[in-house]
Amino acid sequence: MELSWQCGACSKDNMVEFDHLLTWTLNDVLSAKGFICEFCGTKEAVYFTTLSLEKHKRTLSKYHPEHKKFYFLFKETLRRATQVNIRGEGFYGKSRHSNLATS
After folding, report:
1. Pairing of strands 2-6, 43-49
2. Among candidates 84, 93, 96, 76, which has minimal Cα distance to 35?
3. Please, which residues have CB within 8 angstroms of residue 1's CB and are 6 or more apart in sequence?
4. Distances (CA, A) of 67 to 12, 23, 56, 76, 77
5. Are 37 and 13 in contact, with CB atoms under 8 Å apart?
């Protein structure tokens, strides 16, 4: 899926392919998923992840939404993703990007 995303450094719109984001490590545990701006060349983080979160997402994808385990796994995965993003923004700096889908 390709969406428009505004660069935090140069404020120009980039078309970002969300199925093929780049990954770079921030520390031993935390990684950022994002893209490189076509205009200024800076790295823009879209979201942050850990190996544990990726494992939970894979486990969740095995179940159909009507399965009795899906609700619990979805809630746990969402909680972990929120915590990882808060930790990532604290490590990487305030979120410098502007999501055009919500503005």
Report:
1. unpaired
2. 96
3. 17, 18, 19
4. 43, 31, 16, 15, 16
5. no
Confidence at residue 42, expressed as pLDDT on a 0 to 100 scale:
87
pTM, whole model, 2 decimals? 0.73
CA-nearest of 10, 2, 4, 15 to 41 is: 10
Return the exposure string of 55-72: e unless at least 16 CB atoms fall within 10 Å of the residue's CB, then b. Answer: ebeeebeeeeeeeeeeee
Model pLDDT, residue 77: 94
10-residue stretch averages of pLDDT, the chain, 103 residues long = 84 88 87 89 88 92 94 94 87 55 42
Q: pLDDT at position 103, please?
A: 38
Listed residue (66, 90, 70, 68) closest to 78, CA to CA = 70
User: Is the backbone of residue 84 left (phi > 0), alpha (psi -120 to 50) or beta?
Assistant: alpha
Task: Dig out the tokens for 81 from the structure.
Answer: 């993703």
